[in-house]
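Subject: for your reference before the review

Hello V.,

The reviewers asked for a structural picture of the protein, and I figured it would be easier to keep everything in one thread rather than splitting it across files. Below is the amino acid sequence we used in the manuscript, unchanged from the supplementary table.
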Amino acid sequence: MTIKQEPFGQTSQGETVTRYTLTNAQGTEVSILNLGGIIQSLRTADKNGHFADIVLGCDNVADYENQSAYLGALCGRYANRIREGQLVIDGKHYQLACNNGPNHLHGGNQGYNRRIWSANTEQSDSEARLTLRYQSPDGEEGYPGNLDIQVSYCLNSQNELTVNYHAVTDKTTVVNLTNHAYFNLKGSGNCLEHEVQLLADTFVPTNASAIPFGNRQSVAGTPMDFTEPKRIGQDINADDQQLLQARGYDHSWVINEGDSLLKECAAVTEPETGRRMTVKTTQPGVQFYTGNFLEDLPGKAGRRYNRQDGFCLETQHLPDSPNQADFPSTELKPGEVYDHTTVFTFGLVNN
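And here is what came back from the structure prediction:
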């Protein structure tokens, strides 16, 4: 296991951005920036042993700063949407920035994706770990409480990339952290031929601004049914109100209960390359998003990313949970610890 550290440029504010590359003996490597905890590159082998970069990203800091697609970034303090940016905690009203139509999205105007995180590295014969830390001050983007956050990325010799999220607060607040990596297991082109399975019998329907109605709906008999593997493109253009208003999939699936806290929630295969990815998480939901609003976005090696060129599996709490009494609570109180883990495992079909 090795860790390489190299300059990646500077932000528009003159802050230094560093890229950390974690590599295992099989040649699998992941590059992460201290800017927003961005997964900038992830290289894995296909069935013929050829390596390709399977995440969308940028080659320079300016391109990251000038896009709003959250490519590969950590999202918070609250990932996903909060209706009209409204919070009520312990009877007190808080107004957050509304940066997505009428709603608050992924932490606001200057979310964690745009912050510089401090970094530490550790390595052994079996794993390489990058630990990022950010102290989010009371009142940042309207949120109450000083939040001390630690996110670690760990690549091991089994081609598992484990992301652990840890946070504590000095005032009751809400926390919902995730990573917004866009995957394309083929390495280029659109993602419609990928086969996806979601271990979820229900999903969260939303209104036209992607806010939940407050109920969960069975996926049975709908285009949202991924309980058995199917092509992303199979039903994505169905005459279905949920798909039409989102221009594709952009919904939260409620992960089926399992025997352990770390539950498998998704499996993806790409038939042409034979690549396979599985996802396990301790979170209650996974937001499956098919890059519906990517439009001529500057990418790596001169590429331009367009609609459905990548998909996201954002493990997280359910959207707008602070305003949805029937959803699991996202409140974090002083003395409590926010602690969630997601594991991405990379391999090959039938391997």
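For the response letter, the relevant points are probably these. The chain has one domain: 2-348. Residues 241-246 form the longest helix (6 residues).

Happy to draft the paragraph if you're swamped.

O.
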